[in-house]
Amino acid sequence: MGDRDWRPFIYGGLASIVAEFGTFPIDTTKTRLQIQGQKIDPRHVELRYTGMVDCFVKTSKQEGVKALYCGIWPAVLRQATYGTIKFGTYYSLKKAFAARRADGGTREHLATNTFCAAFAGGLSSAIANPTDVLKVRMQVGDEKRNIVRCFIDIHRIEGVAGLWRGVAPTSQRAALIAAVELPVYDACKRRLTAPLGDRPLNHFVSSLLASLGSAVASTPLDVVRTRLMNQRKVRDPSIQIYKGTVDCIVQTVRSEGARALYKGFIPTWLRMGPWNIIFFLTYEQLKALY
Question: Residues 155-194: pLDDT tens digits?
Protein backbone atom coordinates (compact mmCIF):
# COMPACT_ATOMS: atom_id res chain seq x y z
CA MET A 1 0.00 0.00 0.00
CA GLY A 2 2.93 2.33 -0.36
CA ASP A 3 5.33 3.87 2.09
CA ARG A 4 3.41 7.09 2.79
CA ASP A 5 0.05 5.75 3.97
CA TRP A 6 0.55 7.35 7.37
CA ARG A 7 -0.19 10.75 5.85
CA PRO A 8 -4.02 10.52 5.85
CA PHE A 9 -3.89 9.64 9.56
CA ILE A 10 -1.58 12.53 10.50
CA TYR A 11 -3.30 15.07 8.27
CA GLY A 12 -6.75 13.95 9.41
CA GLY A 13 -5.84 14.35 13.08
CA LEU A 14 -4.19 17.75 12.65
CA ALA A 15 -6.98 19.16 10.47
CA SER A 16 -9.62 17.88 12.93
CA ILE A 17 -7.95 19.65 15.86
CA VAL A 18 -7.73 22.94 13.94
CA ALA A 19 -11.42 22.69 12.99
CA GLU A 20 -12.44 21.86 16.57
CA PHE A 21 -10.81 24.96 18.01
CA GLY A 22 -12.51 27.12 15.38
CA THR A 23 -16.06 25.89 15.98
CA PHE A 24 -16.25 24.68 19.61
CA PRO A 25 -18.47 27.51 21.02
CA ILE A 26 -21.17 26.54 18.50
CA ASP A 27 -20.93 22.94 19.68
CA THR A 28 -21.44 24.07 23.28
CA THR A 29 -24.67 25.91 22.38
CA LYS A 30 -25.87 22.86 20.43
CA THR A 31 -25.26 20.55 23.40
CA ARG A 32 -27.09 22.83 25.83
CA LEU A 33 -30.05 23.22 23.50
CA GLN A 34 -30.32 19.46 23.06
CA ILE A 35 -30.55 18.60 26.77
CA GLN A 36 -33.06 21.28 27.80
CA GLY A 37 -36.81 20.71 28.00
CA GLN A 38 -36.62 17.03 28.99
CA LYS A 39 -39.94 16.64 30.82
CA ILE A 40 -38.87 13.35 32.36
CA ASP A 41 -35.49 14.62 33.62
CA PRO A 42 -36.00 17.01 36.56
CA ARG A 43 -32.53 18.52 36.09
CA HIS A 44 -33.27 19.78 32.59
CA VAL A 45 -37.02 20.48 32.46
CA GLU A 46 -36.58 24.25 32.14
CA LEU A 47 -36.21 25.79 28.68
CA ARG A 48 -33.39 28.16 29.51
CA TYR A 49 -32.58 29.19 25.94
CA THR A 50 -34.82 30.18 23.02
CA GLY A 51 -32.20 29.41 20.40
CA MET A 52 -28.52 29.33 19.50
CA VAL A 53 -27.92 33.09 19.74
CA ASP A 54 -29.80 33.34 23.05
CA CYS A 55 -27.78 30.42 24.45
CA PHE A 56 -24.53 32.02 23.27
CA VAL A 57 -25.40 35.40 24.86
CA LYS A 58 -26.76 34.03 28.15
CA THR A 59 -23.87 31.63 28.65
CA SER A 60 -21.36 34.42 28.02
CA LYS A 61 -23.12 36.83 30.39
CA GLN A 62 -23.93 34.41 33.21
CA GLU A 63 -20.87 32.17 33.16
CA GLY A 64 -18.32 34.12 31.15
CA VAL A 65 -17.00 33.61 27.63
CA LYS A 66 -14.69 30.91 28.99
CA ALA A 67 -17.75 28.68 29.58
CA LEU A 68 -18.22 28.42 25.81
CA TYR A 69 -14.91 26.55 25.70
CA CYS A 70 -15.64 24.35 28.71
CA GLY A 71 -14.83 20.82 27.54
CA ILE A 72 -12.42 21.91 24.81
CA TRP A 73 -9.56 19.69 25.96
CA PRO A 74 -11.49 16.39 25.90
CA ALA A 75 -12.82 17.58 22.51
CA VAL A 76 -9.27 18.12 21.23
CA LEU A 77 -8.23 14.75 22.65
CA ARG A 78 -11.24 13.21 20.91
CA GLN A 79 -10.30 14.73 17.56
CA ALA A 80 -6.68 13.60 18.00
CA THR A 81 -7.98 10.01 18.20
CA TYR A 82 -11.31 10.10 16.32
CA GLY A 83 -10.13 12.37 13.49
CA THR A 84 -6.86 10.53 13.06
CA ILE A 85 -8.48 7.08 12.89
CA LYS A 86 -11.57 8.15 10.89
CA PHE A 87 -9.93 9.99 8.02
CA GLY A 88 -6.85 7.82 7.93
CA THR A 89 -8.92 4.63 7.82
CA TYR A 90 -11.33 6.00 5.21
CA TYR A 91 -8.73 7.17 2.72
CA SER A 92 -6.54 4.11 3.26
CA LEU A 93 -9.45 1.68 2.77
CA LYS A 94 -10.70 3.66 -0.22
CA LYS A 95 -7.25 3.50 -1.81
CA ALA A 96 -6.93 -0.23 -1.12
CA PHE A 97 -10.33 -1.03 -2.68
CA ALA A 98 -9.66 1.27 -5.64
CA ALA A 99 -6.39 -0.53 -6.42
CA ARG A 100 -8.30 -3.82 -6.70
CA ARG A 101 -11.01 -2.56 -9.04
CA ALA A 102 -10.88 -3.13 -12.79
CA ASP A 103 -10.73 0.60 -13.54
CA GLY A 104 -7.74 0.98 -11.23
CA GLY A 105 -9.55 3.54 -9.09
CA THR A 106 -9.88 6.14 -11.86
CA ARG A 107 -13.61 6.54 -11.08
CA GLU A 108 -15.40 7.10 -7.76
CA HIS A 109 -17.40 4.09 -6.57
CA LEU A 110 -20.24 5.33 -4.34
CA ALA A 111 -21.09 2.04 -2.64
CA THR A 112 -17.44 1.34 -1.78
CA ASN A 113 -16.83 4.88 -0.55
CA THR A 114 -19.99 4.77 1.60
CA PHE A 115 -18.95 1.46 3.18
CA CYS A 116 -15.41 2.68 3.89
CA ALA A 117 -16.71 5.93 5.39
CA ALA A 118 -19.34 4.25 7.59
CA PHE A 119 -16.85 1.67 8.87
CA ALA A 120 -14.20 4.30 9.61
CA GLY A 121 -16.69 6.62 11.32
CA GLY A 122 -18.25 3.96 13.54
CA LEU A 123 -14.92 2.40 14.55
CA SER A 124 -13.17 5.66 15.39
CA SER A 125 -16.16 7.02 17.32
CA ALA A 126 -16.44 3.90 19.48
CA ILE A 127 -12.75 4.09 20.37
CA ALA A 128 -12.95 7.81 21.22
CA ASN A 129 -16.25 7.60 23.17
CA PRO A 130 -14.78 8.31 26.66
CA THR A 131 -13.49 11.69 25.49
CA ASP A 132 -16.95 12.47 24.09
CA VAL A 133 -18.59 11.70 27.45
CA LEU A 134 -16.13 14.02 29.21
CA LYS A 135 -16.80 16.77 26.67
CA VAL A 136 -20.59 16.60 27.03
CA ARG A 137 -20.49 16.55 30.85
CA MET A 138 -18.22 19.60 30.92
CA GLN A 139 -20.18 21.49 28.25
CA VAL A 140 -23.49 21.09 30.07
CA GLY A 141 -21.96 22.92 33.01
CA ASP A 142 -22.51 20.32 35.71
CA GLU A 143 -18.83 19.40 35.87
CA LYS A 144 -16.50 22.32 35.29
CA ARG A 145 -13.41 20.85 36.85
CA ASN A 146 -10.39 19.88 34.84
CA ILE A 147 -10.51 16.90 32.54
CA VAL A 148 -8.55 14.60 34.90
CA ARG A 149 -10.87 15.27 37.88
CA CYS A 150 -13.92 14.78 35.67
CA PHE A 151 -12.52 11.48 34.38
CA ILE A 152 -11.74 10.23 37.91
CA ASP A 153 -15.23 11.13 39.21
CA ILE A 154 -17.03 9.40 36.33
CA HIS A 155 -14.86 6.29 36.73
CA ARG A 156 -15.33 6.26 40.54
CA ILE A 157 -19.11 6.73 40.51
CA GLU A 158 -20.14 4.99 37.29
CA GLY A 159 -17.24 2.66 36.59
CA VAL A 160 -15.61 1.95 33.22
CA ALA A 161 -19.05 1.54 31.64
CA GLY A 162 -19.78 5.20 32.42
CA LEU A 163 -17.06 6.26 29.98
CA TRP A 164 -18.80 4.34 27.20
CA ARG A 165 -22.25 5.73 27.99
CA GLY A 166 -24.08 6.44 24.74
CA VAL A 167 -21.55 4.52 22.63
CA ALA A 168 -24.26 2.91 20.46
CA PRO A 169 -25.94 6.11 19.21
CA THR A 170 -22.57 7.85 19.06
CA SER A 171 -21.12 5.17 16.77
CA GLN A 172 -24.31 5.03 14.72
CA ARG A 173 -24.30 8.82 14.34
CA ALA A 174 -20.61 8.88 13.41
CA ALA A 175 -21.08 6.11 10.84
CA LEU A 176 -24.08 7.94 9.37
CA ILE A 177 -22.27 11.30 9.21
CA ALA A 178 -19.20 9.75 7.61
CA ALA A 179 -21.30 7.71 5.15
CA VAL A 180 -22.93 10.93 3.92
CA GLU A 181 -20.20 13.50 4.40
CA LEU A 182 -17.08 11.87 2.97
CA PRO A 183 -18.54 10.34 -0.25
CA VAL A 184 -20.51 13.56 -0.92
CA TYR A 185 -17.37 15.66 -0.47
CA ASP A 186 -15.33 13.41 -2.76
CA ALA A 187 -18.09 13.33 -5.39
CA CYS A 188 -18.65 17.10 -5.32
CA LYS A 189 -14.93 17.80 -5.43
CA ARG A 190 -14.48 15.59 -8.47
CA ARG A 191 -17.50 17.10 -10.28
CA LEU A 192 -16.36 20.66 -9.54
CA THR A 193 -12.75 20.07 -10.52
CA ALA A 194 -13.46 20.85 -14.19
CA PRO A 195 -15.02 24.32 -13.63
CA LEU A 196 -13.18 25.30 -10.43
CA GLY A 197 -10.01 23.22 -10.48
CA ASP A 198 -8.54 21.45 -7.45
CA ARG A 199 -8.39 24.75 -5.54
CA PRO A 200 -9.68 26.14 -2.22
CA LEU A 201 -12.97 27.39 -3.76
CA ASN A 202 -13.76 23.84 -4.87
CA HIS A 203 -12.91 22.49 -1.41
CA PHE A 204 -15.06 25.22 0.21
CA VAL A 205 -18.20 24.50 -1.85
CA SER A 206 -17.81 20.71 -1.63
CA SER A 207 -17.41 20.74 2.16
CA LEU A 208 -20.41 23.06 2.59
CA LEU A 209 -22.67 20.74 0.56
CA ALA A 210 -21.38 17.70 2.45
CA SER A 211 -22.13 19.30 5.82
CA LEU A 212 -25.79 20.02 4.97
CA GLY A 213 -26.52 16.40 4.12
CA SER A 214 -24.77 15.05 7.21
CA ALA A 215 -26.56 17.54 9.52
CA VAL A 216 -30.00 16.49 8.27
CA ALA A 217 -29.17 12.80 8.59
CA SER A 218 -27.44 12.88 11.97
CA THR A 219 -29.26 15.40 14.21
CA PRO A 220 -31.82 12.92 15.68
CA LEU A 221 -29.05 10.52 16.73
CA ASP A 222 -27.02 13.46 18.00
CA VAL A 223 -29.87 14.48 20.33
CA VAL A 224 -30.15 10.89 21.59
CA ARG A 225 -26.42 10.44 22.22
CA THR A 226 -26.18 13.81 24.02
CA ARG A 227 -29.00 12.88 26.38
CA LEU A 228 -27.64 9.39 27.04
CA MET A 229 -24.14 10.72 27.70
CA ASN A 230 -25.45 13.36 30.10
CA GLN A 231 -27.44 10.73 32.00
CA ARG A 232 -25.66 9.51 35.08
CA LYS A 233 -25.74 5.98 36.39
CA VAL A 234 -27.59 5.73 39.71
CA ARG A 235 -28.06 2.81 42.07
CA ASP A 236 -31.86 2.93 41.96
CA PRO A 237 -32.84 1.56 38.51
CA SER A 238 -36.26 3.22 38.76
CA ILE A 239 -34.55 6.63 38.46
CA GLN A 240 -32.90 5.66 35.17
CA ILE A 241 -34.46 7.93 32.54
CA TYR A 242 -33.47 6.28 29.26
CA LYS A 243 -32.69 2.58 28.83
CA GLY A 244 -31.04 2.94 25.43
CA THR A 245 -31.22 4.48 21.97
CA VAL A 246 -34.70 3.28 21.01
CA ASP A 247 -36.15 4.05 24.45
CA CYS A 248 -34.69 7.56 24.33
CA ILE A 249 -36.21 8.20 20.89
CA VAL A 250 -39.63 6.87 21.97
CA GLN A 251 -39.72 8.81 25.24
CA THR A 252 -38.47 12.02 23.62
CA VAL A 253 -41.11 11.90 20.87
CA ARG A 254 -43.84 10.90 23.34
CA SER A 255 -43.11 13.66 25.86
CA GLU A 256 -41.78 16.46 23.63
CA GLY A 257 -42.95 15.67 20.11
CA ALA A 258 -41.05 14.56 16.99
CA ARG A 259 -39.55 18.03 16.49
CA ALA A 260 -37.52 17.50 19.69
CA LEU A 261 -35.29 15.10 17.72
CA TYR A 262 -34.13 18.13 15.73
CA LYS A 263 -33.32 20.29 18.73
CA GLY A 264 -30.07 22.09 18.05
CA PHE A 265 -30.28 21.52 14.27
CA ILE A 266 -29.29 25.09 13.38
CA PRO A 267 -26.13 25.11 15.55
CA THR A 268 -25.42 21.56 14.37
CA TRP A 269 -25.46 22.67 10.74
CA LEU A 270 -23.75 25.98 11.46
CA ARG A 271 -21.01 24.05 13.25
CA MET A 272 -20.71 21.28 10.66
CA GLY A 273 -20.43 23.81 7.84
CA PRO A 274 -17.49 25.80 9.25
CA TRP A 275 -15.99 22.63 10.78
CA ASN A 276 -15.94 20.85 7.43
CA ILE A 277 -14.73 23.93 5.60
CA ILE A 278 -11.84 24.43 8.04
CA PHE A 279 -11.09 20.71 8.09
CA PHE A 280 -11.04 20.06 4.35
CA LEU A 281 -9.21 23.31 3.51
CA THR A 282 -6.57 22.41 6.12
CA TYR A 283 -6.44 18.79 4.98
CA GLU A 284 -6.06 19.70 1.30
CA GLN A 285 -3.35 22.25 2.08
CA LEU A 286 -1.43 19.70 4.14
CA LYS A 287 -1.69 17.27 1.19
CA ALA A 288 -0.37 19.95 -1.14
CA LEU A 289 2.56 20.73 1.17
CA TYR A 290 3.73 17.12 1.33
Answer: 888 888 888 888 988 898 899 999 999 999 999 999 999 9
Whether 133 and 166 have beta carbons less than 8 Å apart is answered as yes
Q: What is the DSSP string of 44-79?
A: G-S---SSHHHHHHHHHHHH-GGGGGTTHHHHHHHH
Question: Using CA atoms, how far apart are residues 16 and 34, in angstroms rounded to an integer?
Answer: 23
Which residue, 212, 203, 220, is CA-closest to 263?
220
Query: Which amino acid, 156?
Result: R
- Closest C-alpha to 271, from 31, 101, 83, 109: 31
Contact between 155 and 214 under an 8 Å Cβ cutoff? The reply is no
CA–CA separation, 233 and 10 (whole Å): 36
Q: Compute the residue count for the chain.
A: 290
Report in angstroms the alpha-carbon separations of 257 from 226, 250, 254, 262, 281. Answer: 17, 10, 6, 10, 38
CB atoms under 10 Å from CB of 210, counted, come to 26
Q: Measuring CA to CA, which residue among 138, 134, 140 is closest to residue 43?
A: 140
**Residue of higher predicted confidence among 113 and 230:** 113
Q: Are 24 and 68 in contact (CB under 8 A)?
A: yes
SS3 146: coil
